[in-house]
Amino acid sequence: MAKLNIPLNVPKYKQKEYRNNWRLATKGTGRLMLFAGDQKVEHLNDDFFGKNIDKEDANPKHLFEIAATAHIGVFASQLGLISRYGQNYPQIPYLIKLNARTNLVKTKNPVSRAWISVADVVRFKQQSKLNVVGVGYTIYIGSEYEAEMLKEAAQIVLQAQQQGLLSVIWMYPRGAKVLNEDDTHLIAGGAGVANCLGADFVKVKYPYKEKGKQIAKNFQEVIEAAGNTGVICVGGSQKTPKDYLKLVEQQVQVSGTRGVAVGRNLHQRSLKEAVRLANALSSIILYDYNYKDALAIYDGKKKMKW
């Protein structure tokens, strides 16, 4: 399990709050099971309605029902969505995503800027009394606008940690000069940038298109580049539970990642199935269960006492 490393950006009078947020988000393990709900903006309704998507997913309430019932670390979404539903789900640890863009504008040089500030998040936390443990922000390195996003991200990480909040950077290589977004060497470079920004965690792509255990070994380059910033992998498109659990086991136990950021692989399923899969994933990520035991949890043949 990862040891708590409180950044020097956190003032002494905020260290207790930072420590509490870290413990709440990671269940004291230093690893993160992040349930992502920010696709309501990023992918519009494509991820929530259609073929192979459970009918429950059409209603945003489904996201909160999963987050409230399953054993997750944090639920990440925009402040507005959380403000609409959060009063009915005060037990959820929330991570507020500060920026987002839709998939309507096709461009070789994407840009995404913050909708709100860290100060807005702090005020919302104080007013709502919700368990807001951190903030998230997306950067597209390789875009012509990367300098603007890097500057904004650096300020956000600093301001968040000064308030005792965790910071998670979504780091994606995208731009006219990026030839292969699944290049492990390039992903490692982005993870290193997140470490230079001072982020607590960095969310990166994993080369799911490639097969074999060697891919997980090669991905160790990303973990090394990130230093003491925890690497979590995107979940990507929907996979069979068996395949996904096996992949996550390799990511955590072979690559050395510190968790996942999973969206579609959970919310596109019914509430019951999503909860079973989330609990199985958490057993691997947080408690070092092996693939077989995790699959038994998903199948309902094994129970865990969290």
Explain the overall architecture:
The chain has 306 residues and is an alpha/beta fold. It has a single domain, classed as TIM Barrel. The chain is built from 13 helices and eight strands. The chain has an eight-stranded parallel β-barrel, surrounded by eight helices.
The helicity comes to 40-55%
Number of domain modules: 1
Strand content: 15-25%
List segments where confidence is low: pLDDT < 50 over at least 5 consecutive residues. Answer: none
CATH superfamily: Aldolase class I
Strand-pairing-aware structural class: alpha/beta
Distance, first to last CA: 16 Å
For the sheet with most strands, the description reads: 8 strands, parallel, barrel
The CATH class is identified as: Alpha Beta
Secondary-structure arrangement, i.e. CATH architecture: Alpha-Beta Barrel
CATH topology: TIM Barrel
Q: What would a concise description of this structure say?
A:
The chain has 306 residues and is an alpha/beta fold. 43% of the residues lie in helices and 15% in strands. It has helices at residues 15-26, 39-42, 61-69, 79-85, 118-128, 146-162, 184-197, 213-218, 220-226, 241-255, 264-267, 271-287, 291-298, and strands spanning 32-36, 74-78, 93-97, 131-141, 166-173, 201-204, 230-234, 259-262.
